[in-house]
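Hello,

Following up on my earlier ticket. Below are the two sequence lines again, exactly as submitted.
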Amino acid sequence: DTGVSQDPRHKITKRGQNVTFRCDPISEHNRLYWYRQTLGQGPEFLTYFQNEAQLEKSRLLSDRFSAERPKGSFSTLEIQRTEQGDSAMYLCASSSADLYYGYTFGSGTRLTVV
Amino acid sequence: SQQGEEDPQALSIQEGENATMNCSYKTSINNLQWYRQNSGRGLVHLILIRSNEREKHSGRLRVTLDTSKKSSSLLITASRAADTASYFCGGYNTDKLIFGTGTRLQVFP
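Thanks for your patience. The regenerated structure is below:
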C-alpha cells in the first residue's frame, strides 16, 4: 500500500465544464475526507465518509459539488458547472478509527478553471 | 472555515536555530495535531497532543497545549533546511479535523 492516491494531479478546465477527481485511500482506513486549499490558506473541510456513508458536508459544499464513496473504497468528488472560484488544491485524506495516528493525505489535485 | 490561527504567518531563520509556532483556536477541541506541508504536496502528520496532556516531545519537536487559553505551540529545535515547509495545527471538531491558517517556515542554510 503506497498511501493515499489522487488522480489527476493537475486539471485545467474551462468555466462551465464538469470535472471529477478520484481518491484511493489506504485500504485499511474506513474514514475518508475531502478538503479544499487555496494559496496561502489552510485546508478547508468539505465532506467526509465513514465506509460508504457520507456523514457530514460543509456549508462550503454548494449544490454543484457532489462526493461519493461506493462500496466504502475509493471516492470521487465531482464539481459541476465549474467557476473560477473553484480553482484550488483538492486534498483527500484517510484515517482509521484510531485518531491518534492522524490523517494520511494524498498529494492533491490542483484545479485551475480558466 | 478555519478554526485556528497560527502565529506568525511566516518565519525565517538560520539552520541550527529553533523555530516556534503558535496556534490559537476559537472553540473547544479534542486532541490537537500538527502537520507539515511541503510546497505543492499533501499534509504530513507530525504529532498529536491529547486534551489532557500539557507537553509532548517527538525527536526535535516539542508541542505544548494550554486548553484554558485555547492555544498550542510547536517548537522545532536545531532546525535544518529540510524543515522548510508550512506548518498547520488541526483540532477535532466532532469527527473531522479543522485546520488553522498555517505558518510558513523558511530555514536558510
